[in-house]
């Protein structure tokens, strides 16, 4: 087998050597040898350059790494401060140099005098290199010829704790230390080049033998028969062939070329420029001799695809060969295919672009924009005015609102956006709306029914150049929502085939517009429901100056709520809560919880007890509504409940999983209340804790839900800091202005979550409007208290209430003395109403009842209920307080004071 291979190689070599360099085999062989040699040379050169670059780069990288590591090593700065740093640094640098694999590590002072060097004799001499950039705090690398030879070195600064450069560290190594890839890969490249040359030699030998077999071995009759066959094929193919000489004369034209160009029988031998029927561009191409590939030329009423190649490329005679193909029908088919492709592309883009939001106007605008300018020059979209509000549209083309206008220019005379239009029955818009089918108007200038709509404007539209129109109804789920109008001015007029494209384009947008309409309706219903459950107006009270904001979420309503509830004794309760979840169910649950808080507040419970009752209610709601279909729909809620007393300026509050309120102090500083964090409502099992704060008059208490400070783009801490910044520095700002400033600072245009914000500025009752007495447990003390109260009412100008207040006070004090326990305390408050409070240390509460005719007592509370506007009992840690309110006759005079 090896002998046969050797004989084949010897035969191939003799065959190649014996060929003349002008032969095809010899030229191929020489070309292959040149190509292989060039490739090997290029590979070696590229490898050398890359190896050189990688060597330098690796040396710089290692030098920088070692120098920076040593410069920041512990103990370097302390050693530099010694009288003789070399004694400490020289062993350190040598140990580091050996472990890091570099040739030297030099530590020097800021003047370049070495402290260390691998050659001890070099210590104390000036460093060879540039130190200026390093003294400026930069890392500097360079290539130098130093004591060790050609080196790459990096110089870095050593900074003290103040950032001052106190020394420099330079590390480097000789470039030759980095392993070069050239030595490893050069033998491989040379071996591959030699193998390629051997393969080329064998291939050339095979090509030479094949050429001899296909040419010189043919007999004359075989050659003649071959030429005859070629001539038959030349004149039979359905492709024109022309052969043109170097002098520009037609040498040969086959039958197909004569037919396509309608050449005369004596055309061969004529100059190309004298051939009849050819357009100048074709004559120029045939006479130029340049290469051409599928150039389309018009000749004899046909579109011809022309290819031209020179014939002297392989040493043959000069001239060109031209082929002609009739592409008239192919061009028409290609045009239809291109139109279909553009149509599909437009519909595809419409599917992607239209319906990106659930906004009716935005969706209509997307329809208008996607069709300009690929389908129409101008597009207008009109929707029934009821559709914009989520309602069902009217059956006629009246009250149509123009919601979108898009075009190639802005100075068009079409109806402007926002205009309300009533289309006449004679217009194509009204006909299309009534029939539910698109209408085509190819010539607007002659459309009399369209001109009747607005003669002056329609004339301006025609004069502007708009000449054709397609109006397509926007219909989805059997409901007509509006019309889309496609206008052309620069393009060709619309035809019947484009009518179906307009209908399909509008049909894709109709579903999105209807979805947006339905969403608008449902969203409006949900927002209406939620707003009906929220306070419509704040109650009258004098303890707080209150402002609020409520913003529904972009994606739908949620369970955020707030409340301001007047309490007895001129006190006011502030409530902010958030039900987990979104949608109508969350809004309905919010209404239930708000009602529950209102009901529990009438019991005048402390904040922690009230939240405990609400927590039990939420737990019962979860249990009663738990089912597989609605599992996890209600998981709880958060709430903050605060009670402010203007008489004492104290605020008691508790929270259930809610964020702590912000406090704006009179000096403009902002803090967040240190309020114990209770569990969210609905979890159960954990008590709630209260915190009591004393607020200076003019302080602002800011309650909010998490939608104000939390967002996907920022965390909670960042939101709280933004809230602090929006509130700080404005102590005298009104609550209304504070609300707006907070929303402008923290919220985007359309928030993702509901936001409830409550800002309350505290007021304090003047000291002369509050009177206190301690009452001994002696029935004789009642008469003295009546006299003291009468005197105080006389001082306040309320002597007309004296009789009723004396009766109420007598009954309440008598009950406290008879049934209560020490201490007994009376407080009289002059606010919007006249409030009398009697406190004692007992937790027993009196009850209103009807006394029998034979009973000697039991009519006191009945008398109190008849004389007082309201009365009730509240409990505190020390006992109870029974209170009663009497209406002040002249409220306007009181407010004027």
TrEMBL record:
Q: Which intervals of the chain form a coiled coil?
A: none
**Cellular component annotations (GO), alphabetically ordered:** plasma membrane
| Broad class of where this protein is predominantly found | membrane
Q: Name one Pfam family in it.
A: GAF
Using the record's annotation, list all stretches that form the PPM-type phosphatase domain. 541-762
- The UniProt transmembrane annotation reads 29-49, 186-207
In the record, biological process GO terms are: phosphorelay signal transduction system
Where in the cell is the protein located? Answer: Cell membrane
Sorted alphabetically, the keyword list is: ATP-binding, Cell membrane, Hydrolase, Kinase, Membrane, Nucleotide-binding, Phosphoprotein, Transferase, Transmembrane, Transmembrane helix, Two-component regulatory system
| InterPro entries referenced in this protein's UniProt entry, alphabetically | Bact_Sigma-Reg (IPR052016), GAF (IPR003018), GAF-like_dom_sf (IPR029016), HATPase_C_sf (IPR036890), HATPase_dom (IPR003594), PAS-like_dom_sf (IPR035965), PPM-type-like_dom_sf (IPR036457), PPM-type_phosphatase-like_dom (IPR001932)
UniProt GO MF annotations? ATP binding; kinase activity; phosphatase activity
Q: Which residues form the GAF domain?
A: 349-523
Membrane disposition: Multi-pass membrane protein
Recorded protein name is: Serine phosphatase RsbU (Regulator of sigma subunit)/anti-sigma regulatory factor (Ser/Thr protein kinase)
